[in-house]
Design goal:
Layout lengths: L3 H15 L4 E6 L5 E2 L10 E7 L2 E6 L3 E6 L4 E6 L21 E7 L4 E6 L5 E6 L7 H4 L11 H9 L5 H5 L10 H10 L13 H20 L41 E5 L2 E5 L14
Parallel strand pairs: 2-9
Antiparallel strand pairs: 1-7, 3-4, 4-5, 5-9, 6-8, 7-8, 10-11
């Protein structure tokens, strides 16, 4: 599922491409994906693009907003005059307007937005702009890096639970925006075993993890996110972080730091978890998981 860097890449491009465009018409091919009456936004102009954790919000000039969650395989693709070099990644299965295109926005000046979703888990929702932050999803999100996540809050969250630290930092109600790819890399960078109980981290380790989360997310944003699976950017291109991951997806490869052990993969909280057993040693507590 796209994480903070991927969704920030979506937000940045949509803001660049959509601001000033007007919605002329809207074709919804699958009602399970689109929530709300599209008549409420016909004729409205895009004025702002925001992001809350893994959710993109497009504000319109009629006090309505479109909330978008691409979930696992959703793709938001723009075509129009504000895109000089349109791309078409092979990850856009079925092409644009094909069998996996479920929503099509027709904009003024020959603009289009296509929403593709192979597995149909993603969604659009029309809400009043004033209510975006009151919705169940956004309202229950924890603070997020680069916005309102503080070290003091982070220490407090970790100190109150024995859940594995990797599971805690991926809990969107505790820290918004961090998912599996960047959680793995942040824990590797801070040399913390992902199965350790969160409350077993000392103050120095907590600070290292806090800084590592910001570092790997920054790196992810620098490369436009990760297109390991189906993620594509609204211009139809791909992110590049999958070529720069530290430990994620590298099981069986010799650790580039210690050069003593190979990266191993375990399942933790139902997710593939990668770590170096030398750089991120198990503790008495981590062996409980």
């Amino acid at each position: 599922m796209p994480e903070l860097p991927e969704v920030e890449s979506i937000r940045l491009q949509l803001e660049k491409f959509l601001l000033g465009h007007k919605i002329i018409s809207l074709e919804v091919k699958d009602r399970r994906i689109f929530q709300g009456d599209e008549k409420e936004i016909i004729g409205a102009k895009f004025i702002k693009a925001r992001r809350f954790g893994k959710v993109t919000v497009l504000d319109l000039d009629n006090n309505k907003s479109l909330m978008i969650h691409v979930k696992m395989t959703g793709q938001v693709i723009y075509r129009g005059p504000n895109l000089k070099k349109p791309l078409l990644s092979p990850k856009i299965s079925g092409g644009l307007g094909g069998p996996h295109t479920h929503v099509i926005f027709t904009l003024d000046n020959d603009g289009k937005i296509y929403y593709n979703d192979f597995r149909k888990f993603g969604w659009f929702k029309i809400v009043d702009t004033k209510d975006v932050e009151k919705t169940d999803l956004v309202g229950k999100m924890g603070p997020e890096p680069f916005k309102n996540l503080t070290l003091e809050y982070f220490k407090n969250v970790l100190s109150k639970t024995r859940r594995p630290v990797k599971v805690v930092i991926m809990d969107q109600s505790k820290v918004a925006g961090v998912g599996n790819i960047y959680a793995n890399d942040a824990l590797y960078l801070s040399k913390i075993n992902p199965a350790r109980p969160a409350n077993s981290l000392n103050e120095n380790e907590t600070k290292k993890l806090f800084d590592a989360i910001h570092e790997v997310l920054n790196e992810g944003m620098k490369h436009g996110g990760s297109s390991e699976n189906t993620f594509v950017t609204p211009d139809g291109g791909e992110g590049g972080y999958q070529r720069h991951t530290l430990v994620y997806g590298k099981q069986g490869i010799l650790c580039p730091v210690c050069k003593k052990e190979k990266i191993i993969k375990i399942m933790l909280g139902g997710r593939g978890t990668y770590y170096c057993p030398y750089c991120q040693p198990e503790t008495k507590e981590s062996k409980l998981f």
